[in-house]
Specification:
Layout lengths: L5 E5 L5 E2 L15 E5 L33 H7 L8 E6 L5 H12 L5 E5 L4 H11 L6 E5 L3 H11 L3 E5 L16 H18 L3 E5 L12 H5 L2 E7 L5 E9 L7 E7 L2 E4 L3 H6 L9 E8 L2 E13 L7 E4 L3 H15 L6 E7 L11 H13 L6 E3 L2 E2 L5 E2 L4 H10 L4 E5 L13 E5 L2 H8 L3
Parallel strand pairs: 4-8, 4-9, 5-6, 5-7, 7-8, 13-17, 15-16, 17-20, 20-21
Antiparallel strand pairs: 1-2, 1-3, 9-10, 10-11, 11-12, 13-14, 14-16, 18-19
Helix pairs in contact: 8-9, 9-11
Length: 449
């Protein structure tokens, strides 16, 4: 009897090792190597007659995108679903991944056949969820199956306009002697479905589980294989969800889609600025409004700051929704360039609405909120736009006119912007635009009566 060959694979990055190691040499994670059975196929020679095609002889055609029925999903995908595309959707358990895809399947099933594969739920469970979402389309077909060979045969026989697999970690190839969810099954299963998508031009959506660190479970090669990687973000205890693209071969990765979770499913939020502003009050000290741009969409977000005297030990610095080190830098600029001494103050910063901000255009709004809370003085109803440098200067920001127009649309009285950007702004006569060059100048303008 032939000896069974096994290797050890890292469940985080897919690194292969001939023996077990406590720490993966590839990604540095601990206790992630798992033993799996491997079978080496006999080496095959490349068939004769295969040749490369000159670039000038390759024929292309414009891909006609298919609308998913959801403007927010279409925005993140780059304008719709591309035939033959391979999309991976990740997110925490219970965040609404299956709900989003089932709703999308229901919308598309009004005009085409859609095949929904589930390896986690029974047909009755999916039927109950579909009834709760108000989905009753006869062209939506449900298959509870984990064998990918069966999935392929059903898909080839039906020829659906969209194939959804929930989830890739439950799917198995029978030829592999490994458990579902293992590195080899996830890697080979994804490659199997990718070939099906490209050869038959069937768009395929995969659901991927995430680890406790927030990354999609399984080998990193999974994200390399697919055309698009989407993340569904949000707090399960709040109603708003954000859909982001972190990889997209057919469009921008800067777009976001905003949804609101209701009892009867996910509802699109056409004007997310109102959501992120929340219950913003112009009379509350420590509250300011910044204008950010996510892809092509300008958003107004509320920056909240609380500055209070330190009671125990060294002062605390807490930042939610924004980079902690960025806040430390802004506090140093306030101390050095403006003379606001915060060494004996606890400072708490929060971005309302649960959004995460990475762009520097919110620096001026953060400084305004901190100064407002420290002095217990409310700010004017102005939106603030600008990056702050270490020398105290207010630096220019891209897409300034788009940001200012969003503030006009939301009914703000005016904007405070970098002086270098003022020539690029055209606004109505009843809207005030104040250009500033330094942080000290900006703080003075904010509190003028």
């Amino acid at each position: 009897m032939a000896k069974v060959k096994t290797r050890f694979f890292c469940q985080s990055c897919g690194q292969e090792s001939p023996r077990w190691l406590g720490k993966c040499p590839g990604c540095g994670e601990w206790n992630t190597l798992v033993e799996e059975v491997v079978e080496r196929a006999a080496a095959k020679r490349t068939p004769l007659g295969v040749k490369a095609t000159p670039l000038t002889e390759i024929q292309i055609r414009e891909e006609e995108r298919v609308s998913s029925g959801s403007q927010e999903l279409d925005r993140v995908l780059g304008g719709g679903i591309v035939p033959g595309s391979f999309v991976l959707l990740g997110g925490e358990p219970g965040i609404g991944k299956s709900t989003l895809l089932l709703q999308t399947a229901g919308l598309l099933a009004k005009g085409m056949d859609v095949l929904y594969i589930s390896g986690e739920e029974s047909e009755k469970q999916i039927k109950l969820r579909a009834e709760r979402l108000g989905i009753k389309e006869s062209r939506l077909h449900i298959l509870t199956e984990t064998r990918l060979e069966v999935v392929r045969d059903v898909a080839l026989a039906m020829g659906p306009g969209l194939l959804i697999v929930d989830s890739i970690q439950t799917m198995v190839l029978e030829e592999l002697q490994a458990a579902a969810g293992s590195v080899s099954q996830v890697r080979e299963g994804a490659a199997f479905l990718m070939r099906l998508a490209k050869e038959e031009e069937i768009p395929i959506f995969l659901v991927g589980h995430v680890t406790k660190e927030g990354a999609i479970a399984g080998p990193r090669v999974l994200e390399h294989i697919v055309d698009t990687v989407l993340y569904f973000e949000g707090d399960r205890h709040h109603v708003y969800r954000l859909l982001r693209a972190v990889k997209n071969r057919f469009g921008s990765t800067n777009e976001i889609g905003v949804f609101e979770m209701h009892e009867d499913g996910l509802v699109e939020v056409p004007n997310p600025s109102k959501v992120f502003l929340g219950e913003n009050s112009a009379t509350a000290p420590g509250s300011s409004v910044a204008v950010i741009v996510e892809g092509s969409r300008p958003l107004l977000v509320e920056i909240q700051a609380l500055v209070t005297p330190t009671t125990y030990g060294p002062p605390r610095r807490t930042a939610t929704g924004i980079d902690y080190n960025r806040i430390l830098m802004l506090l140093a600029v306030l101390d050095k360039k403006v003379g606001l001494h915060l060494g004996a103050q606890d400072v708490f910063i929060n971005i309302a609405g649960g959004i995460r901000i990475d762009e520097p255009g919110v620096d001026l709004a953060c400084i305004a909120a901190i100064a407002s809370s420290l002095g217990e003085r409310p700010l004017k109803r102005y939106a603030l736009i600008g990056e702050v440098g270490l020398t105290g200067e207010v630096r220019g920001i891209s897409q300034i006119e788009k940001r200012v127009k969003e503030a006009v649309k939301l009914g703000f009285e005016g904007c405070i912007i970098p002086r270098i950007n003022v020539s690029a702004v055209k606004v109505p006569g009843n809207f005030t635009v104040i250009a500033v060059k330094t942080v000290e100048e900006a703080v003075q303008v904010m509190f003028e009566q």
